[in-house]
Specification:
17% strand; 43% helix; alpha/beta; globular; 5-stranded mixed beta sheet; 136 residues
Length: 136
């Protein structure tokens, strides 16, 4: 898990067994940004959801495959606001989750510069969406 800010972590693909470790780190919500069946061998969202619910965590499924839609940005913004604690968003590598987080945070009023700094500190580059962030 890499911290993007004080309440949001991102990660590459997680497994149901990883959920309890996330809960031990204070995560209260899992946000799955990876479509089911994107790659052979990945766990299905329902498996991770079951593990999250068993651990007492909230779970959101906001899959991103190609491009990020306004509906996905809105769903992520709502999830971030509803988390009530720390959230962990994941996809294959963490990049899509980071970009969706940044677009949602920009919608909630954070500046593109601030988001780019936070993402860079976690090892992610927001250059592909920087123009959109600066207009938000």
């Amino acid at each position: 898990m890499r911290a993007l800010d004080e309440s949001t972590f991102v990660a590459a693909q997680i497994w149901p067994a990883d959920v309890s470790a996330a809960a031990a780190e204070g995560v209260t919500m899992i946000v799955n940004n990876r479509p089911d069946f994107e790659e052979a061998g990945q766990p299905e969202g329902a498996e991770i959801e079951a593990a999250a619910l068993a651990a007492g965590l909230d779970y959101r499924f906001i899959p991103v495959s190609s491009g990020i839609s306004e509906a996905q940005i809105g769903a992520m913004a709502e999830a971030l606001e509803a988390a009530g604690g720390k959230s962990l968003a994941f996809c294959r590598s963490g990049t899509r989750s980071t970009m969706l987080w940044a677009l949602a945070r920009a919608r909630l009023g954070e500046t593109g510069e601030s988001l780019a700094r936070k993402a860079a500190a976690a090892g992610y580059d927001l250059a592909p969406i920087r123009g959109i962030l600066d207009r938000s």
